[in-house]
Amino acid sequence: MQDLTDIHNYNANNTLLAGRNIVITGAGDGIGRAAALRFAQHGATVILLGKTVDKLAAVYDEIEAAGHPQPVMVELDLHTANNAEFEALNREIIDNLGGLHGLLNNAGILGEMKPLSQYDAETFDQVIKVNLTSCFNLTQALIPALESTENASIVFTSSSVGRKSRAYWGAYAVSKFAIEGLMQTWADELSDTCNIRVNSLNPGATQTNMRKQAFPGETPHNNPAPEAIMNSYLFLMGNDSIGVNGQQLNAQKK
Ligand code: NDP
Questions:
Q1: What are the distances in angstroms from CA 91 to CA 83, 142, 143, 151?
Q2: Residues classed as catalytic
Q3: What pTM value is reported for the model?
Q4: Which domain CATH number covers 13?
Q5: Of 39, 48, 84, 168, which sits 20 to 30 A from 60 (CA to CA)?
Q6: Residue 80 belongs to what domain range?
Q7: Structurally, how many domains does the chain consist of?
Q8: Top mutation candidate among 106, 113, 200, 227 for ligand 1, by most atoms within 8 Å of CB
């Protein structure tokens, strides 16, 4: 098996994801956009889930223009989406695509950078809903589609403050700690009943809008672009990670 501290150097072959159907949340921007484009380039049919239809359409068009497998667009706001919508997606994936091989829970929001004593309660709820509860709801609803294929892979997106928290990271850090708990529980439960593997991935500092919001004074190009951190994402979505389960992984060298 691959050394899991070295997956940022993983070298994917061009057809790694051929014939695989993969849902990516927050696929219209940042890391999710880069993952959607790269997965499609390696042969996957990508299901682009997000809340801003213009951004999703731009990714859709880019994939189509490059001649990769035709993607699917799903406009959903994870703050307000309900279980009926998630279950309908599960049914459509089974009926129209024959099942699901991968789920990248990537969408997220930062919330406020403030001491907890001053943190707005409504924002706290919103961050927990988008970064945690919706990941639980969506993943739970998609389990039948994931179970209907061989060796499906679920990835939850963590953060360094989901492993060791720091002052002022508020609900965001709490949501990422909880994502690790969700990942571990699901990984342990599913290992008893099926071949779905479940892991978490910390992208590390990456040049995106969220990073700009968290570190407004930072020089953006000191961090890699999302396109530069995709090796670990490919590793986790392809068959070379079969047997890797319940792991907290990093997309960049620590
Ligand atoms: P961006 O802000 O660039 O992108 C976030 C994505 O999530 C966007 O596509 C956004 O859609 C989507 N999104 C936000 N809210 C919702 C919602 N309510 N419903 C559906 N989609 C939504 O962030 P990053 O690409 O940087 O972050 C991706 C993941 O990586 C997050 O989970 C983040 O916590 C994590 N991460 C990022 C790090 C970094 O340095 N960039 C470091 C550690 C972790 P829209 O554009 O339409 O709002």
A1: 12, 9, 11, 19
A2: 172
A3: 0.98
A4: 3.40.50.720
A5: 84
A6: 4-250
A7: 1
A8: 106
